[in-house]
Amino acid sequence: MGNHGSNLEDILAEDMHHWYNKFMRESPSGLITLFELKAILGLKGMNENANSYVDQVFFTFDMDGDGYIDFVEYIAAISLLLKGEINQKLKWYFKLFDQDGNGKIDRDELETIFSTADLRRSDAESAELELLEEKSGRD
Description:
One of its GO terms (molecular function) is calcium sensitive guanylate cyclase activator activity. The protein is mainly α.
């Protein structure tokens, strides 16, 4: 496993016990697969872009690349998200959004971020706005 970029000592012993119990309740095998992560988070019916980001989150937390999130990786992720320095979090978010791993967030990746975050209008919203504009034009 090695150094995961998060300081595990920042989490108090009682917190560690809490997170261990939670982890083992969610995944009694001691390993979380991508499928299990989606089930734990209750992620169903996501669009393709959102699904892709959940996959990317999993792969950034699976630090040794074995296809599972073990307890050490789980704690490192929790530590990063809850107690990590801003620079650590920014690096993690960049890695998450740089889906092709080329060290840059290109236009397609940026468009995917916006569409996943629902910052663009959906087709239904666009159609509704067009109807409102037509109606106001007739009045």
